[in-house]
Description:
By secondary structure, the chain is of the alpha/beta class.
Amino acid sequence: MSVLLTCDVMDAFAESASCDLQFQQWGKRKAISGWIRTLKVYEDNTLVRQVLSEKSEGEILVVDGGASLHRALVGDMIATLAMDNGWGGIIVYGAIRDSAQINEMDFSIKALGTNPRKSHKAGQGVLDIPVMIGGVTFRSGWYVYSDVDGIVVTENPVLL
């Protein structure tokens, strides 16, 4: 399946929201798009694992980790879980770990960086609320395009 690239979306719909933050890309799948699910957590990945344990039709989980690089919110085990359950990818406003293993997967993760330190397990966080990252509001039920050039959010899928 071909994914519409962020540059094509912006060329056709210049008013689309483009994330100004520069994320790093991991995984073999470099271009993804799908319906957004949001999650707000801080240095605790219990709910990240819980949400990604659910079956998905290719949704993209956007995790607002408060930009913390102190603890990783996603590693290879959670990435594998997400991939096996049909998730299209993960965008993490925070850190991941096991990046070499994730780079070997047919999956896509964007994050600010890496840290080998694992997260807390208190189960704190909020699902499906609007989160602001890089000047863009990500909303559950909206659509996201992500590739090596950036991240674009639209209310509905773009048809060209």
